[in-house]
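Quick one, T. Sequence first:
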Amino acid sequence: MKAVQIGGGLVGRLIAADMMKDFEVTVVDMDRNTLEEIEKKYPGVRTAVASATDASRLAPILEDADIVTAGVPGRFGYEMMKTVIGLGKNLVDISFMAEDFEELDGLAREKGVTVIPDMGVAPGMSNFLMGRGSALLDEVEDAYIYVGGIPTKAVPPFNYQITWSPKDCIEEFTRPVTILRDFRKEVVEATSGLHLREFPGVGTLEAFCTDGLRSLAKNIKARNLGEMTLRWPGHVEQMRLLRSMGLFEETPRSLGGSEVVPLDVAADLLFPMWKMEPEKGDRDLTVMEIDVHGFKGADEVTYSWYLLDYFDEKTWNTSMSRCTGCSCAIFARAVAKGLVKQKGVLPAEKLAADDDLYNFVIEEQKNRRIKYTASVKIVMNVR
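Structure tokens:
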């Protein structure tokens, strides 16, 4: 079988490497240097220079593909998805776009293709497990995601390190947050609901509201629903201080006769302090807890899943990039194998009721040493 990966970034390479185990893989990127690096690291991979939104250039590359995976900058994500759908190809994507991808559902149905968007770890597996818990209940009262990609130990002065864009990280502290409260959508300030919470194998972390629900806010019928980002204690207080100083603003200001954007300055200054450097001993972990609480008949039930994953010493890949890329590749296989038969744009929460798909996904994660531990608590006959 043949697969095409659009985007040769850090996670895109991991997706391609995973798919190469049983697919002939072509990686598409605009940058020839990026593709040459991939060719050297992964002998046998094919490459092609093309824009993610150029239908005429992509058409011959995708012609024989059984499945397409993608990870491109968010600003290109919607048009890339529209282009791939227009070419009649199934797609599993991790591009974090601002647009509502479900607006392309009609086109995907018309073309007879399956598209699974936001299919990383969070969003992605968080959606799938949230959907699973919801499907197992008659009524959902409270559903929450707790997730963080953090260094294995607090690193002063910010107790944080990143492997991705500092601007994207800063957005978590500025973008208004959509939650569900008493079945109604509400918009609250980023970092609302800050509190400390214990996580097995990690310790005490601070949890706070961020805008990560995306399609879940429409597709999960819960009384209360939210996503909370996790960091080592002390990080939020520092970020709130920088935010209050105006350092995260995007409106240009005049400084010394020049126009500067505070956000650009902040990102430039913060990145050297935040940058994770594995060659110097830096390591990361991914921790995620999904709790879905509600009722099944007369019983009060809580379904939970817990993930704790670490930097991969064997492959030298960060935990967050590995958990993201492997999840995309697993769902791509599920589509290619015919485990997902529905057509349209299908966020993972819409697929989670299928027992065969659920078992396949959890087993495939385990085969990659990524373990989601499931548990259930039942209080019988409460109503």
